[in-house]
Amino acid sequence: MPFGTLDRSPPPFFRQGPSALTKLLLCAALAVFLMVADARFKLTTPLRATVALVLHPVQRLLLSPVDAWDNWGDYLRGMERAMAAEDQARKQLVQQAERLARAAQLQAENQRLRELLKMREAMQISSLAAEVLYEAADPYSRRVVIDHGSHQGVKLGAPVITDAGVLGQVTRVYNFSAEVTLLTDKDAAIPVLNTRTQQRGVAYGGERNDASLELRFMAANADIKAGDLLSTSGLDGVYPPGLPVAKVAAVERRGDSSFARIALQPAVPVDSVRHVLILAPVAAHEAARAEAAAAAAAEAASAAERKAQIKAENKARAAEARAKVEAAKRDAKEPAKEGQR
């Protein structure tokens, strides 16, 4: 038989190997053995620790995308919370700033009202507190409108002052409001007195209706200098004496003129006035005082007359009582005389 026809395959016993059932039983027995050995003798603990140590970098590498995603989400959520907290803080800051400004405004307003009340108590002239509503829309004059009128007792020509000094004069009166012409109006004028030299003059409003005054018709050699305080003289019969009017800002003496050019700064900042005090004119106050004095004198005279009349009546009654007593005595003496006879 030629060699090429020989069957060189292994016998069936070596070609098939152990059966599947045998393999299953072997694997099951090995698993039970390993579990028992691990439970009783801890044989696989070092092996498990070694495998965990070897696989830890791989595990961290595989978890890095998940950790990065979680960290990015936490960052975004933190940014949102921080921005929301910043917005809330900004709102609270704005509210606190508004409250602080309102508190400062109320404090300043209370201070001005206290000053007005002090001035009202110091002056012996009837007065009325009012509030400035708005400035009159007239480019050729300087006027403000107040919230009191004839219904509240405001009179035409009444002086208007603040805690700082004279503001102006009432020029128009309505039922529930009135117009006040400021001292800085170009047609306004007020007699003033230099508190340093006691020299009198007249202050006029600025020619351009700006917030300034001028002291006109003062001699070039007059004793006046920057910083002098000017107050009301009381000669016009409108303003009480001693109220601050203005301060001398600049004095210009020119050789070609016999009068000095004197610029004044008003004592009252006319653009920031809110509360004012309306006074009765001095002439009206003097007339009212004279009428009150006359009424008091008439009342005193009538009281004296009534007192004299009562005294005369009392004397007459006393004389009549004495006459009756004497008559009763005489009547008592006559029967006694008749009995003696």
Automatic annotation (TrEMBL):
Keywords: Cell shape, Coiled coil
Annotated ranges, domain Rod shape-determining protein MreC beta-barrel core: 132-279
Family annotation (PANTHER family): CELL SHAPE-DETERMINING PROTEIN MREC
Keyword Coiled coil applies: yes
Pfam families: MreC
Role, per record: Involved in formation and maintenance of cell shape.
Name this polypeptide is given: Cell shape-determining protein MreC
InterPro entries: Cell/Rod_1, Cell/Rod_MreC_2, MreC, MreC_beta-barrel_core
Gene assigned in the entry: mreC
Residue ranges of coiled coil: 79-126
Organism of derivation: Roseateles aquae
Chain positions covered by the region annotation Disordered: 311-341
Homology family: Belongs to the MreC family.
Keyword Coiled coil belongs to the record: yes
